[in-house]
């Protein structure tokens, strides 16, 4: 079947760079009329999701390393959670990821109270030294990437501030403008001071060995292997179950037959909105993604280089129109352009040497997780042994759960006696006190004066008494075990009461386990026993 472009002059003209205005309008119309429905690729989305945890840890670490002296008070750091997009408290994060930070006590100002500070751990400092060694080992690769980025740009100049924003995508070290650029004056020249918005990095000398794209290198390698000249072409790869309409398939076939335009070639002779300009723009995106360490770049970062690489304002439509070459991921609420051919399922086919840093960082995180899990296993085993010992002891002594529960309630009321005396001094009827102490209570309080008095006695924890009053309807309720109340406000003070009375840990476990809803748990930072519902 003859395609829609087969009769156009470009397929017959010996000079493919000359276009008539009529053809330009036809090609632009053909592009705008083709609609490609976006479809989710779960495996590529999962590849992005897999990096979520270590990226969060990296953000927190960078925040600490950027502080003067690489130390920061914990309470100050807690205020930055929203900016770091950290869903948990900093203290919880440190406990969940041991080995990243050390905590210590110090004063912010002389004669002030001691507060908790955090600093990088020795293990993290060793990792940072390994990271620097990996950057130094791969310095020629980093220089080549920088040269390629500048060679693709208009006038071989790119904003230095934009390169800083994209440094982690291409695997550049944090100080590459300060330490790396001055070492290679034969390649680079820095204009202005970075950070002021008017600094630019210029390529002084174009190396011919850097002017071949990934697609051209692949074609050369295949030609050497087969002995047949292979034409450079994009790899069109659709995931299983993904189909495009017949009209789009014909358009893709004819578009692939167009001559390949290298992103390093001079484009002064190309017409905007022409087929070759479209081919060149796809080639630039392909090369940028190939130079990135994860073979994917967030679209907002690519959009920063519209002026340097001559992208149109609607450049992101390229990723959906050429869905066999790219994939537009919406994971995490951020559009990310992914190079399909670089992935096999969730894994990269060829890993960038700079990714060794990521692998070592993940090892560091996993090492801390294993140590934490080991400590928790030891504590769980200790509690299990105590429970087994107490079970045997209860059988020998004929343990009475009902009496244990009564004693449990009495011990809870023991520290509240001063508060009860305060209430009696207000001339409240004894019956009201009896209801408050001995009856299960409901949110509905019998007398408003009593409720007001409860608020006045908050400092003495009267409002935290874990019992309930009767409803106004007069219906009685069975006493609820203490575990039905908030853990931190109820159970932990009760445990403290037992410990203050000098009860042994086995006795404490026996009494608390008299109610089946109480489950023992150990903390991470100390050896005290806590209980949760």
Automatic annotation (TrEMBL):
Residues in PORR domain copies: 40-369
GO molecular function annotations of the record: RNA binding
Pfam families named among the record's database cross-references: PORR
Record-given protein name: Protein root primordium defective 1
The species this protein was found in: Phtheirospermum japonicum
